């Protein structure tokens, strides 16, 4: 009977296997510590490739003003849809703007917004999940119902409504994405915190009379972070795709601001005549997503002792 | 142990693989759907039809597929031709129409004056969409004199009735039918099946009074995604597409087996300027600033370069054919960035370090909104052109028409980029609709020039001769464009149709609503 | 067990309230209103204030929001979800008419995802660390990293135009579902592939596998006969959740392929500000998700204690 109860609790955190995997990561982190993790990580070639890709993209993004040969908004109308040449290394788009410059500047917005969204989602998700998992009871039930609600709610409705208040722009895309995304984090963190709660060092802290708030902040959250970071890295890919998807629908950046998803949208009509308009931003998005996924996989493999 | 395990996953996997194989084989075996002889499948845009009993008409608006016919027809050069009415007379304020004898509806009922009365009185009763803004029809305006004669007396004198009733909304429907869901008309086609968002299937009406259409079956498939529509044509899945995106016109022209046909200019992409805006949208109250905006844009480059030649230089807000010889009255804007800069300087806008302009600490920034169908490239082009004389343009794109409508009605814009429709043959229609202060349109209050303009419009509404009406319309446009710079015409838009080589006798009409499908034939 | 299911089903009610309030508030606060949209659709002449006002009266759009919500709620409690502003058909009928198309797409997509993910995952696990492993992982990732709109057009170009085997768009014809489902399925396949790999690796590390190997069985026999059964269980659980995501996430794919599913219906309803449809959709999808997750949890619950018991017996 008691094992069934355990399973009930287990099942409350819905992504059962995922959570079990994160729990294993958690245990290993608590037991093993940093050094062997790094060793395992560096031995994983795929993860290293992912890391290199990410570092490369971030560097390019930061150095965009230095590297871009042209102003991304400058139109050279007599050289529209040019193939790669000396002046325009990747060619030009339908308004004669340098594709390389737009990609470089676009990376800043695409990566920065995904990073900002990720950070916010992390903060809110970990916060809510930790509170729900640690405090339990009605707080837990109520918070998890809110999570359920958000997970079932279509992102598009939310995003469109938000553009009504804030207006179209990157900020409303971010608000929309963050409002929905934190829910899945919260659920997983809650599951982790549930298992963490039974641990001796937490019980010891409780016995010593440390306030719940302090326990959560100083003991629960720091120990929950490693699996959460794995999760965040893996989710970055989806975040990038979601943000570029909303930009693709026209809900995000305003012209002429370059952003990969918006560039994909602009290039749609030139699918046959100038496919490079879609290929370059598509590749860029794919590369970024792949980099984060490879790194995330590597991190998880390194941390998970079962593998 | 074994009875506790899940059902054998191995066989489950096998089943899954078999299923997958079936799918792949099915896919390979799928035959391509090809239209048979005298059958045409047309790829159309998104299905915009809304069901409103008493107000909407399936197959008539916004997509007119000739299920019903109005009393008169509007030709490609905006002339009135007899259709269900063979001739008409005017007696004072009354118009008398003589109906064509021997016409029956697709169900077999004969066309009589009663059908005309039924159609018009329904329109009056259900009129919520303002079709009748300047038509002045009332409950008692229609009188059936005999089976083939109908008198129409508008409640106020209306010189333009003839042109107005050529609009698809006045298609004559069979008495007792509800055209919102089951249209019954006298036209060359009849409805077979409508699946919202998927297709509209029609068949030749064997009881048609006129020349039978060559097409036996005509299907409109709704393919909202522009690229998918083009790909469907290239794959041979449809015989013709409407509104091929201009960016793909060159590719389609170059492809053998396909043909591209452009309609004459039906609409003009124009910038409407908000001259009665509240701060911060109050800058365009200055005429010189408005003129500067108009002078800064190089239309020729827009058409030749951004639009790849798919447009026409035009200085009026409607098709030139509507104005005839009076079109010369309207000069339009030239491209003169120096003069634009000069005007800005005169207004006190001094150049700032970053390429913009300032005056009393306020930066010269204008906000533009656009009808959602407008491509970003045109907006960005205008933005760059204005930037070259120091005007910063902020683009506010709307994700959908509801947001756009909300925005424009709130007045929170300086410039509005759109391409107003001209679907009836009345020359005074367009300027009256958007700029006449007594027009009931919701956005008139931002653009109305004032009493002098109103007088010209009223003279045009009351004028008897078509030539007089046309002249008034030209005068009104001259005021709007040349004198007051309230509207800046950018370029004439031509609808682009693309089709397979074997689609013949397609004659494009400047207005999609009046496009004829019954003269098309397919094959040798 | 029964209590568990009962609680989950009862929790549907607060979910319905919560999600419908949220949807109602958000749709009404979004800019634009349905009366204006309808008025514009009926005529090419911009409508007057009066005309829009009369449509608003007809749809009771001028009543205060709480009143309108209460009215809707009252109807919904009786099973009447109202009528679509656009087609005047009952909301439920519209949903029912469009759902099968999305269901079909999700099913085929899931099949494709499994067909790709399972073999790849198994191979990657069995040949762990080899180039096959890395290659499979990268390949799966590539498929998942491609934005769906890009992938969709690419597939149309290759398979519909290039070879002419499959239709470009629409739901007619036997093979019509393949391209959109492929576009959808490739994304799901990566999660499942990754999961299969890690799950199989976990099982391969267990004692009873070592026993089987010691008996002299070949690696493939070990995997096929012993490891795979246990490894696939969590995969099947997550598949249930992935299915839910597929049902809700087909919006872009449906619009590119002109697929008449509920994704398309939702987008059109949002653009039309068709409030009853939006409410109905949100309620419907919320219920579908909750039921799917219930089924997923139940399957895990059903499986789990027995595995535990089995393990205990093995050790004991």
Question: What features would you describe in this structure?
Answer:
The complex is a heterotrimer of chains A (307), B (524) and C (316). With 307 residues, chain A is mainly α. In chain A, helix 3 crosses helix 13, helix 6 runs antiparallel to helix 11 and helix 6 runs parallel beside helix 13. Chain B has 524 residues and is α+β, with helices and mostly antiparallel strands. In chain B, strand 4 and strand 5 form a beta hairpin. In chain B, 53% of the residues are buried. The radius of gyration of chain B is 27 Å and the shape is globular. In chain B, helix 14 packs antiparallel against helix 15. The mean pLDDT of chain C is 83. Chain C has 316 residues and is mainly α. Helix content of chain C is 78%, strand content 0%. Chain C is built from 14 helices and no strands. At the B-C interface, helix 1, helix 4 and helix 11 of B face helix 3, helix 4, helix 6, helix 8 and helix 11 of C.
Residue share in helix of chain C: over 70%
Number of beta strands of chain C: 0
- Strand % of chain A is under 5%
Main pleated sheet of chain A: none
Tally of helical runs of chain A: 13
Oligomer: heterotrimer
- The helix/strand order of chain A is HHHHHHHHHHHHH
The total of beta strands of chain A comes to 0
Distance between the termini of chain C: 27 Å
Task: Give the number of helices of chain C.
Answer: 14
Share in helix of chain A: over 70%
Q: Rg of chain C to the nearest angstrom? A: 25 Å
Strand percentage of chain C: under 5%
* Average pLDDT score of chain A: 81
- Over the alpha carbons, how many angstroms does the gyration radius of chain A reach? 22 Å
Keywords:
heterotrimer, B: 23 strands, globular, disordered N terminus, C: 316 residues, 14 helices, 78% helix, 0% strand
Topology:
The complex is a heterotrimer of chains A (307), B (524) and C (316).
Chain A: H1 2-12, H2 16-32, H3 34-43, H4 45-62, H5 64-67, H6 99-135, H7 137-152, H8 155-166, H9 170-197, H10 200-207, H11 212-248, H12 260-267, H13 276-303
Helix pairs in contact in A: 2-9, 2-11, 3-13, 4-6, 4-13, 6-7, 6-9, 6-11, 6-13, 7-9, 8-9, 9-11, 11-12, 11-13, 12-13
Chain B: H1 9-29, E1 39-44, E2 72-74, E3 80-82, E4 85-91, E5 94-99, H2 113-126, E6 142-146, E7 149-152, H3 161-164, E8 189-195, E9 199-204, E10 217-222, H4 226-234, E11 240-241, H5 249-254, E12 258-262, E13 267-273, H6 287-296, H7 299-306, H8 320-323, H9 337-346, E14 350-351, E15 357-359, E16 362-363, E17 365-370, H10 376-387, E18 392-396, H11 401-410, E19 415-418, H12 429-435, H13 444-447, H14 451-462, H15 466-483, E20 487-493, E21 496-500, E22 503-504, E23 521-522
Parallel strand pairs in B: 1-10, 1-11, 17-18, 17-19
Antiparallel strand pairs in B: 2-3, 4-5, 5-7, 6-7, 8-9, 9-10, 11-21, 12-21, 13-19, 13-20, 14-15, 15-16, 22-23
Chain C: H1 2-10, H2 12-29, H3 34-42, H4 49-58, H5 65-77, H6 91-126, H7 131-145, H8 148-162, H9 178-204, H10 207-214, H11 219-248, H12 251-256, H13 262-272, H14 275-315
Helix pairs in contact in C: 2-14, 3-4, 6-7, 6-9, 6-11, 6-14, 7-9, 8-9, 9-11, 11-14, 13-14
